[in-house]
Amino acid sequence: MEAALQELLTDAVLRGELPTATNVPCLARAVKITMDGSLLRWALTGDGDPAALLHADLDHLFGRTS
Question: pTM for the whole thing?
Answer without folding.
Answer: 0.86
